[in-house]
Amino acid sequence: MPAFTMDQPWWALGRQFRIRDGDGNLRYRVRSKLLTFMKSSVLEDASGREVAAIRQPVFVLDRLSTITAEGRTVATVKQLLDRKPQGQTYSVDVEAGRVLSISETRYKEKYVVREGARTLATIVRGVGYSVATGDADEVLLLSIAVAIDQWDGNYTEST
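The structure corresponding to this sequence follows.
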């Protein structure tokens, strides 16, 4: 199962992450855009090419993020209103009518992304994030991890 780590450089302005594979090779970068009316981040491959953009409106009460790639919306991540003591649940509407679910643990240290009964990814928060993606679309799953960071991370602070 492919695994990635998302860590933030100590000198970063805003939220920026380096995403490395299990061998320590740089695979992606996440750069936040400052001074916008949305929490906005760009996922770039190692060569600097944008592969996805993750946007969350600032003035919306519900948690909602849009993931775009190549100019089209590929997924919408939203919070469901069924608050549970063991953790929040999210829904991901993916193009082609697929629906993924995200469940979090009570203390927001672990998120599991599923399609039906099949686990697609596990996202674990520690110092940065650890993301195990299985054989699913790694760009989509890493973009979902960025959306989670926009909601539950200290998005406006550098850690």
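The longest strand covers residues 118-126.
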